[in-house]
Each structure stands twice: as structure tokens, then as C-alpha cells.
Amino acid sequence: MGASGSKARGLWPFASAAGGGGSEAAGAEQALVRPRGRAVPPFVFTRRGSMFYDEDGDLAHEFYEETIVTKNGQKRAKLRRVHKNLIPQGIVKLDPPRIHVDFPVILYEV
């Protein structure tokens, strides 16, 4: 958990492209040196959706179906979670862009 950033994959998109030195040198210089080459924007415009579509086209995080269980001659309704035939939502566009989790910035409000 908590490994959604690019550091978890060994990739630091906001470091300087000058190279050399270890992680300490890159951490100390990243505020002073602008990256050369491809400029990486600090914003995230899309994300992977966390919801699913079912067979009827309904969109939700979880789906349940009602099953009737007979126990001691009494009928009882139980909810069973559905795992099959669910289609992931896919890529979702973020209306206001978000700041990337690995972007080295301090947010300050007076």
C-alpha cells in the first residue's frame, strides 16, 4: 500500500537529467537545476478508474446478488458478492488536474 508513486518502480521523473552522483546529489540539486530534454509537467490529467460495469451497464465499486438460502425450513435472503463478468471502468479524465504525487513541492496556505 502507498506505492502508487513512480519511486516504487525506480523512476524519478522530476530529477535533473544531468545524471552522475547518487540519490543525495539528485535530491540536493533538483530544486536548483532544471531538467534538460523532455520537460515533465507536474500535473496528472487522467487516472485509472476504480469502478466496474456489470452486465446491465451499471457502474459501481462492488456488486452483490441476492440468493435465497433455506435453513431449518426457513427461507432467508443473503447477499453474495459478484466477481465475474465485471468490466473495469478504464481511464478517467480528472476535471481539475491534480499535482503528481512525486512532484517536489510544498503547499503552503497563510
From TrEMBL:
InterPro entries: FUS1. Pfam families: TUSC2 (PF15000). GO terms for cellular component: mitochondrion. It comes from the Eukaryota. GO terms for biological process: cell maturation; inflammatory response; natural killer cell differentiation; negative regulation of interleukin-17 production; neutrophil-mediated killing of gram-negative bacterium; phagocytosis; positive regulation of interleukin-10 production; regulation of mitochondrial membrane potential. This is Tumor suppressor candidate 2. It comes from Macaca fascicularis.
